From TrEMBL:
Top-level division of the source organism's lineage: Bacteria
Domain N-acetyltransferase positions: 1-168
Organism: Streptococcus dentapri
InterPro entries on file: Acyl_CoA_acyltransferase, GNAT_dom
This protein's name: GNAT family N-acetyltransferase
Pfam families: Acetyltransf_3
Amino acid sequence: MELRRPQVKDKESVLAMMLEFEQESAAHDGGFWDTENFDYEEWLEQNFDHELGLNLVDGMVPSIQFVAFSDDGKALGFLSLRLRLNDSLMMSGGHIGYSVRPSQRKRGIAKAMLTQALQVCQSKNIKKVLVTCHSDNLASRAVILANGGQLEDVRNGIERYWIEVEAQVDK
Protein backbone atom coordinates (compact mmCIF):
# COMPACT_ATOMS: atom_id res chain seq x y z
CA MET A 1 0.00 0.00 0.00
CA GLU A 2 1.24 3.46 -0.90
CA LEU A 3 0.00 6.70 0.65
CA ARG A 4 0.47 9.60 -1.76
CA ARG A 5 -1.11 12.71 -3.20
CA PRO A 6 -3.77 11.84 -5.80
CA GLN A 7 -2.97 12.60 -9.44
CA VAL A 8 -4.88 13.01 -12.69
CA LYS A 9 -4.07 9.40 -13.63
CA ASP A 10 -5.91 8.21 -10.48
CA LYS A 11 -9.23 9.79 -11.45
CA GLU A 12 -11.20 6.62 -12.21
CA SER A 13 -10.01 4.82 -9.10
CA VAL A 14 -10.59 7.76 -6.75
CA LEU A 15 -14.04 8.47 -8.22
CA ALA A 16 -15.00 4.81 -7.73
CA MET A 17 -13.93 5.05 -4.08
CA MET A 18 -15.85 8.29 -3.56
CA LEU A 19 -18.94 6.67 -5.06
CA GLU A 20 -18.60 3.72 -2.70
CA PHE A 21 -18.40 6.04 0.31
CA GLU A 22 -21.53 7.84 -0.89
CA GLN A 23 -23.47 4.66 -1.73
CA GLU A 24 -22.66 3.24 1.72
CA SER A 25 -23.43 6.59 3.41
CA ALA A 26 -20.07 6.07 5.09
CA ALA A 27 -18.15 8.84 6.80
CA HIS A 28 -15.11 9.84 4.78
CA ASP A 29 -12.95 11.60 7.32
CA GLY A 30 -9.72 12.58 5.66
CA GLY A 31 -11.39 13.02 2.28
CA PHE A 32 -13.41 16.10 1.47
CA TRP A 33 -15.41 16.92 -1.63
CA ASP A 34 -18.55 18.70 -2.73
CA THR A 35 -20.92 15.96 -3.92
CA GLU A 36 -23.15 18.49 -5.67
CA ASN A 37 -20.59 20.17 -7.93
CA PHE A 38 -17.60 17.85 -8.00
CA ASP A 39 -14.90 18.20 -10.64
CA TYR A 40 -11.88 15.94 -10.14
CA GLU A 41 -9.33 18.24 -11.73
CA GLU A 42 -10.56 21.22 -9.71
CA TRP A 43 -10.39 19.05 -6.57
CA LEU A 44 -6.74 18.29 -7.35
CA GLU A 45 -6.02 22.02 -7.79
CA GLN A 46 -7.84 22.80 -4.55
CA ASN A 47 -5.74 20.15 -2.74
CA PHE A 48 -2.57 21.77 -4.09
CA ASP A 49 -3.75 25.23 -2.99
CA HIS A 50 -4.66 23.99 0.48
CA GLU A 51 -1.24 22.43 0.90
CA LEU A 52 0.29 25.84 0.17
CA GLY A 53 -2.21 27.58 2.47
CA LEU A 54 -3.95 29.31 -0.44
CA ASN A 55 -7.70 29.89 -0.86
CA LEU A 56 -8.57 28.41 2.52
CA VAL A 57 -12.09 28.98 3.80
CA ASP A 58 -12.49 30.30 7.35
CA GLY A 59 -11.56 27.73 9.96
CA MET A 60 -9.37 25.68 7.60
CA VAL A 61 -5.61 25.25 7.94
CA PRO A 62 -3.00 24.20 5.39
CA SER A 63 -3.28 20.47 4.76
CA ILE A 64 -2.10 17.68 2.50
CA GLN A 65 -4.69 15.41 0.90
CA PHE A 66 -3.46 11.85 0.55
CA VAL A 67 -5.05 8.75 -0.93
CA ALA A 68 -3.91 5.21 -0.16
CA PHE A 69 -3.48 2.98 -3.21
CA SER A 70 -3.01 -0.75 -3.56
CA ASP A 71 -0.13 -2.07 -5.66
CA ASP A 72 -2.51 -2.39 -8.61
CA GLY A 73 -3.73 1.24 -8.31
CA LYS A 74 -7.03 0.74 -6.48
CA ALA A 75 -7.89 3.65 -4.20
CA LEU A 76 -8.21 2.29 -0.64
CA GLY A 77 -8.74 5.30 1.60
CA PHE A 78 -8.30 8.97 2.35
CA LEU A 79 -5.96 10.70 4.77
CA SER A 80 -5.76 14.42 5.44
CA LEU A 81 -2.69 15.77 7.22
CA ARG A 82 -3.30 19.18 8.73
CA LEU A 83 0.01 21.02 8.94
CA ARG A 84 -1.01 23.01 12.00
CA LEU A 85 -3.84 23.10 14.49
CA ASN A 86 -6.44 25.73 15.27
CA ASP A 87 -8.77 25.80 18.29
CA SER A 88 -11.38 23.65 16.57
CA LEU A 89 -8.88 20.98 15.51
CA MET A 90 -7.43 20.93 19.02
CA MET A 91 -10.83 19.81 20.29
CA SER A 92 -11.78 17.42 17.49
CA GLY A 93 -10.02 16.45 14.30
CA GLY A 94 -6.38 16.87 15.22
CA HIS A 95 -3.55 16.75 12.72
CA ILE A 96 -4.74 13.65 10.89
CA GLY A 97 -8.11 12.42 9.70
CA TYR A 98 -8.49 9.17 7.79
CA SER A 99 -11.06 6.76 6.42
CA VAL A 100 -10.84 3.46 4.61
CA ARG A 101 -13.09 2.53 1.72
CA PRO A 102 -15.95 0.44 3.17
CA SER A 103 -15.14 -2.68 1.11
CA GLN A 104 -11.49 -2.56 2.23
CA ARG A 105 -11.92 -2.28 6.00
CA LYS A 106 -10.48 -4.69 8.60
CA ARG A 107 -7.35 -5.33 6.54
CA GLY A 108 -4.81 -3.13 8.38
CA ILE A 109 -5.02 -0.32 5.82
CA ALA A 110 -5.79 2.44 8.31
CA LYS A 111 -2.88 1.39 10.51
CA ALA A 112 -0.53 1.44 7.50
CA MET A 113 -1.89 4.81 6.36
CA LEU A 114 -1.30 6.39 9.77
CA THR A 115 2.18 4.85 9.98
CA GLN A 116 3.12 6.38 6.61
CA ALA A 117 1.55 9.71 7.54
CA LEU A 118 3.77 9.88 10.63
CA GLN A 119 6.80 9.66 8.34
CA VAL A 120 5.47 12.66 6.42
CA CYS A 121 4.95 14.48 9.73
CA GLN A 122 8.59 13.94 10.57
CA SER A 123 9.64 15.41 7.22
CA LYS A 124 7.41 18.44 7.96
CA ASN A 125 9.02 18.86 11.41
CA ILE A 126 5.79 18.03 13.25
CA LYS A 127 7.07 16.44 16.43
CA LYS A 128 3.81 15.58 18.19
CA VAL A 129 0.66 14.64 16.34
CA LEU A 130 -2.87 14.92 17.70
CA VAL A 131 -5.24 12.22 16.42
CA THR A 132 -8.82 12.01 17.64
CA CYS A 133 -11.66 9.53 17.39
CA HIS A 134 -15.17 9.16 18.70
CA SER A 135 -15.34 7.07 21.87
CA ASP A 136 -17.50 4.48 20.12
CA ASN A 137 -15.05 4.03 17.21
CA LEU A 138 -13.15 0.99 18.45
CA ALA A 139 -11.39 0.41 15.13
CA SER A 140 -9.95 3.92 14.97
CA ARG A 141 -8.88 3.72 18.61
CA ALA A 142 -6.99 0.50 17.85
CA VAL A 143 -5.26 2.14 14.86
CA ILE A 144 -4.18 5.11 16.98
CA LEU A 145 -2.93 2.92 19.82
CA ALA A 146 -1.03 0.66 17.38
CA ASN A 147 0.79 3.78 16.17
CA GLY A 148 1.83 4.86 19.67
CA GLY A 149 -1.09 7.10 20.61
CA GLN A 150 -1.22 8.21 24.23
CA LEU A 151 -4.64 9.25 25.50
CA GLU A 152 -4.69 12.79 26.85
CA ASP A 153 -8.40 13.09 27.58
CA VAL A 154 -11.96 12.68 26.33
CA ARG A 155 -13.98 15.78 25.45
CA ASN A 156 -17.66 15.52 24.51
CA GLY A 157 -17.25 11.91 23.39
CA ILE A 158 -14.03 12.63 21.43
CA GLU A 159 -10.88 10.81 22.54
CA ARG A 160 -7.72 12.87 22.04
CA TYR A 161 -4.42 11.03 21.53
CA TRP A 162 -0.92 12.39 21.07
CA ILE A 163 1.74 10.51 19.13
CA GLU A 164 5.45 11.29 19.52
CA VAL A 165 6.47 11.18 15.87
CA GLU A 166 10.18 10.46 16.26
CA ALA A 167 9.55 7.57 18.65
CA GLN A 168 7.21 5.91 16.13
CA VAL A 169 9.16 6.59 12.95
CA ASP A 170 12.46 5.41 14.42
CA LYS A 171 11.15 2.12 15.80
